[in-house]
Amino acid sequence: NYSIPTQVGSLENWASVSAGGSGMLAIKTDGTLWAWGTNTGGGLGLGTTQDVSSPTQVGTLTDWATAHLSYPGSSAIATKTNGVAILKDSLACLPSSVGHPLYKSVL
């Protein structure tokens, strides 16, 4: 616990961060998407169900605008700069574009 704001880790240039349960999603200023924490059912979108203790880049795309992780961290939704919304739900175990379940994505 910290009583004042304290930098976590050495990485910089974060544009936004979203927490859900014990996981985190973040977007850097270069548009890349990063995830870490408890990876319940693969909800972090890393292609695995293993927990990760430090920020790990999700795919290679550089056009992420927003990212939100649900509680308890089993589902995520992100938007790209072109407005396309991407849903990752561990219950379905298949990434899909909202409204288009066959759309494949890196999340």
Describe this structure in words.
- 0% of the residues lie in helices and 40% in strands.
- The protein is mainly beta and 107 residues long.
- Strand 1 (14-20) and strand 2 form a beta hairpin.
- Mean pLDDT is 77; it is low at 91-107.
SS-based class? mainly beta
Q: End-to-end span in angstroms?
A: 31 Å
Largest sheet: 4 strands, antiparallel
Give the overall form: globular
SSE order in H/E notation?
A: EEEEEEEE
Proportion of residues in helical segments: under 10%
Strand content: 35-45%
Strand order of the largest sheet: 1-2-3-4
Global Rg = 13 Å
Q: Poorly predicted ranges (pLDDT <50, ≥5 residues)?
A: 91-107
Count of β-strands: 8
The overall pLDDT average reads 77
How large is the count of helical segments? 0
